[in-house]
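Reviewers of the previous submission asked for a worked example of the structure-prediction workflow described in the proposal, so we include one complete record here. The input consisted solely of the amino acid sequence. No template or homolog information was supplied to the procedure at any stage.
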Amino acid sequence: MRRGGNARGIRGGQGSPAWGLGGGAIAWTPASLASLATWHRADLGITLNSGNVSGWADQKGSANGSQATAAQQPLYVTSDAALNSQSSIDFDASDDSLALGSASSFNHIHNGTGGTFWIAFRSQTTLADSMMLDNNTGYSGAGLYIYQNAVGSLEIRIGTGSTPVFTSTAAVVVANTKNQLLIKYSSSASPNWVLRLNKAATASGAEGLAPSSGDAGYPLRLSADAGGGSHWGGSIAEIATFTSYLSAGDQASLEAYGSSRYGV
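From that input alone, the workflow returned the following structure tokens.
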């Protein structure tokens, strides 16, 4: 639990990291890919409340994040040694959480038309059963669900709990380590879904159920389940989503960016 006071903002304009003042390209970022749909990076678009995060602006679309309750606002870390001295948002495994966007903001991840989800994060110092992120209706409905258990396995699911589009526990993280995770899914791709942890092919396969075109149950909740519990402890530095099942080349560029920026 953390308490806040007056708010202030850390501003980052849409597309500004990718272009210099003279209009020339300077560095590759997720904004370099045309299919970028949402982009949250911890050094951009942050609103602080006495050192805690009350808002996290989407640098591409309108999936802005917020936490109005001061005691549940995660800590802002300007330079996180565990993430190559980049900025991060630290969740305390007790009551911190953020909600990104609306129930429809991330439909491209689960509706089968082609979507990619990528996240850079530090896993928990002490591994425990907890929800890293979730926007489906508990164990049912459309949406994405990433749950970490006490031995570090990430249960990753799109779709319903009983008959998901896909589910995997192949990705395993070590306590207090930096990671990048990529998930891509399309009903028309082969394989339908691919899971990659730290640039390594981790799992892939065919969809087990036709995708849902409906909205997810909730906004994308970071460090909370659909009921607002099961809080995760760790740090998130960046999340990017795309309205395409990234090509091998674009995937390699994104993962190389993650390696360069976060050292993973």
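The first helix runs from residue 107 to 110. We consider this example representative of the routine output the project will generate in years two and three.
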